[in-house]
Amino acid sequence: MRIISVAAPGNGSGKTLLVASILRAFAGRLSAVKFTTVFKDGVNCPRTEKACACRELHGRFTVVTDPKTLLMEQTDTGRLSQAGARQVLWCLAQPDAHREAWDHVRINLLEPTEGVVTEGNTAIPILRPDLLLMVMSPSIPRARWKPDAWDLARRAEVVMINSFNASADALRTLAEEVAAARNGELPSIQDVSRPLAEWQDPGPLTMLAALMGTLPEPAGD
Predict the structure, then answer these.
(1) Using CA atoms, how far apart are residues 2 and 88, in angstroms rounded to an integer?
(2) Residue 27 CA to chain centroid, in angstroms?
(3) What pLDDT score does 52 carry?
């Protein structure tokens, strides 16, 4: 199983946009798994989801497979479905239950040889992805950053800064911080909502194509 994981410092950084761009580039060749950690406090629920995670969790973890829920408009899972995923799964888990949840997904819901793109930070140490992409945005207040943000930024094969709705000064400041954390390696600055083939930096698409063993779909197809 080939696993591509997308992480971010916090909600609103562009994770779903980036995952959708990857799915469009390899339409029909990847399944998508969205991981959500549920704290049962109502504070950390994804604000973009109409189906609140606190209400969807039953037991230590729940994997949502119901198309009616997954295809709801203006939700992350709906966007991933529309982007060309083979299938979309929404995996909700208590903070210490991600391993159980992933074992269930991997064994019962995915084919051993298929490609998977995942969204969410907490499950990454369990997934041990073949390719880790970190997307960051200067528009997200530091108070909303997750504790693992810089650790994942240092570990990722690719760090990109989402340029959408960000000033040049803010982009430059965050790029310098990322470079300092990665021994001088500069991040890729991109509007992650755009097709990967249109990015000025071809590096991420080249790495994805090498992992997939196939060329991406032409932009617009």
Answers:
(1) 16
(2) 16
(3) 56
